[in-house]
Fold Tetratricopeptide repeat domain protein.
Amino acid sequence: MKYLKILVLIGLFLPNTVFAQSKKQMYKTYQEGKKLLVDEKFTEAMVRFKTLMVPLKKNVYEEFAYYYYGLAALKNNQLEEAKQTFTRLVERFPDWVNKEEVYYAFGDIYFREKDYTNALKYLNRIQAEKMQQDIVNMKGFYLVSLDLPTLKKVQKENASDKVIAQVLVNKIAATSENLEDLEMMEALIESMKLERPKSQKIKGKRYIKKEYNIAVILPFNLEILKSRQRNLLSRISASLYQGMRLAKKELDTTGVKLNLIAFDVLRKGEDTLNLILSEANFTNVDLIVGPLFDDQFVKVAEFAAKHRINIINPISNKSVLIKNDFTLMYEPTIETQGKKSGEFAMKELGSKKAMIFYGRSTQNKKMAENHKKAIEDNGGEVAQFEQLGTANITQLKEMLQKVKPTEVGHIFVSSSSQLVASKMLNAMEELKIKAPVIALDSWLKFQKMDSVQYERHNVHIINTEFLPKAVVNASKFYQEYKKSTKVAPNNYACVGYDLTHYFGGLLQTYGVKNSLKNILQNKAPKEGRLITVFDFRGGNDNQFVPIVKFEKGVLKQVNTLGGN
């Protein structure tokens, strides 16, 4: 170790007055031994020092000869020889001025022999201030390579040693996925004022469990399900849950163990919800999916944040429901849809000058405003920003004529009115405006509009629930779902399946008690297994907004993970 080498060099400069009392040959032998030791010719050095390890009257080199002989044996990996030599040195010269250097050498020997108890016993005898940093370095050098169980045992036997505690903390942070280990790490950091490891992958505590509990709070309405009279919400809930169950079944085979705990909470189920949240066992839940009703979701989200549990809304796009860093949305919010469709227009459509129209609802206007901001933030121009409804629909042609047809980059229509859609496409055709249109998914439900019109006018549609049937139908999930339910999976079943696979994997990787939003904001997006992309860079909601269009009568997604 470092200090042993320094001591050798110091020995080269012992005062000449010491040597003046020695015979000439003894002096020569001593100097040759030191030179050989420095040159790392340990066997030859041992031979020289051996001749000086005799109790002659004028042998002033005897103590140092013992020390350097033992040191040469240690460096030559002759541990037993070194140990015996240092033992004889301490026994023959108990008051030797450099006795603490011998203790340091003993520490090195016992560490090499994996006798950590004796190694630390000898190091703890050293009081010299100048040697303390070398002691720290020696402990770190040998202890850092220990496996975690052995290191924990060593730390327990030396509970007051801050160096060992710090090494243990660093080891846990870098290697352990065990809840008890992480709690031990936090306790040591707090009680001994240790440094938090910089190499820790997850900020804060990282709790990894063998099994994870996912609470599914949905309006199943079990009584109706039993009588086969299903309403819309009970069908959505049943589909979501069935998709989640199939994902759990698959994850179980990969080592990710999930327990799905279903809670049936209806629209007027306030008492039931309070009872669920008051149960002590609910604090053992690691992830919450639902509820679907806004007021219930807000209440559960507050409870979840208090207990550091991540909660996911599987169907809403309302940003007002996002209250804290533990709340996530599977769907992009209205604001995100407006922003990402604007970025798509600038990047993929080469759009410089946009015309934006929106309906009467607050949501329509909010999406249009965010689309406008994205256009302007990316160097584009918004030539028209107008509310459009029955009161001014007759003025649509005049509005469109404010920009030359060839200068229109794209037209964004944030309206769910079939009348607005029809009038817009007719006016564009009459004015020979060939710019692409970006519209809402409600346009796919219009009875008097068809794929031929949309394809001819290059209509792009924001469709957060887009389901590529070819992918779903070819999946193992499709076969399993149909086998168990006798019907093909709908969008909600696919959401439940994808959501469970993605977030179940995150629990396995990052544990619990950590905000997934804070983790995911710097994590690369990931393709879902069936329908979408998971991208939480920059928000609590999914930042990937699928945009589709008809190509030869088939609806296809035109933006990809790479182009988002």
Notes: Residues 5-21 have pLDDT under 50 and may be disordered. Residues 212-330+468-541 form a domain with the Rossmann fold fold (CATH 3.40.50.2300). Residues 232-252 form the longest helix (21 residues). The CA atoms of residues 316 and 549 lie 23 Å apart.
